[in-house]
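Annex B. Sample input.
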Amino acid sequence: MEERKPIYTAKGLGRSKVFLLGLQHLFAMFGATILVPILVNGYFHGEGLSVQVTLFCAGFGTLLFHFCTKLKVPAFLGSSFAFLGGFATVAELPEFEGMSYGEKLPYACGGVVIAGALYLVLALLIKALGVKKVMRFLPPVVTGPIIICIGLGLAPSAIANASVNWPLAIVALATVIIFNIWGKGIFKIIPILMGVVISYVLAVIMQLTGITNADGSTIIDTAALATSGFVGMPKFVLAKFNINAILVMAPIAIASMMEHVGDISAISATTDRNFIEDPGLSRTLIGDGLATMLAGGIGGPANTTYGENTGVLELSKVYDPAVIRLAAIFAIVLSFIPKLSAIFGTMPTAIVGGISFILYGMISAIGVRNIVENHVDFKQSRNLIVAAIIMVIGLGSNGVSIPIGGGNNITITALALASIVGIILNAVLPGKDYVFGENKKGDENRGVHI
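Annex B, continued. Sample output.
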């Protein structure tokens, strides 16, 4: 079977195809992006983050990121799950006792603003010291397993979502595979969109014939449609600052910054472009940090580069950042049309699970490819140890909580902990067989050469 050639500019595809490609990226990010405010609302008893504000922050934050990265990096910035534990902790901080949960939310968002500012600090360090000195600590034996953990860490959510209605999830997954392998023309580059459309039609048929999900719930929940208006401004909330809320939220940036490096490496490897060098890791960090600061400042969740959309890039082979920006514009438009946003929100959970099967798997496969293409020597015990410990911590632990006094804790997620431990082990264990910048071909293969 002839391998498709990557498309780096979508200009020759025509407006209709570009529109569909943008819509495909919107569908890929939508479920996870709106899930964050839904979960936070649970912690804040219905007075938490707004879905409309979240969509606006994702769209505008993505455009801001693209502006900071010279319009070169095909990344979408959606809601970060890393900060969920922080929101839950801030909601129960003792000093906020007596406040309504709606009054507590701005302080959590203030912590998000400071977390975003830490991105700028790291960007300045990279600019001052040089990316070479920083990336020496992130060889393929470290970044490969981290990328694998990013994908496999998301796998349980794919299984959980798919298990709501396995037949529907399997149809969604099978449709993506069929169109990706045997599709012709435009259908070959929009397999995810086709998976959503065809499985949604099946969901409608199943609902009309009285079939329900495994737990007895309706397949398509239309309750939000009745209460949502056609046009409405997002309800922005200005951030407020409290030292304890900052101490809870800001350290989580350690996790999200490590994920950022892994995601940019994954996007670089996927597109065969060196985004660490051009436009530079400092610029991508600034873009992500400013987007997170903006989101927190107006009552939204922290942003992060989305692996789901990296999976879409891998499947479609269309790497034009303009397509991502179109998806960002769609997200902004949706934030002002609650009714349309609610329609998108009726997408059955099982369909999201079926689509996620392949997207999350693609991310992990990219990590495996980085290891293989760089010929990481696993005959060396030190390489086995580094990779093994990263994988076990990243996939098997729940992270750690560090007491900071007053009954409060700083939570370091499993992925952040795995990244930190992996970097330290690689730095201190003898027998390093990889030095950044010496093996140019190996660096090029993972998209992070200088």
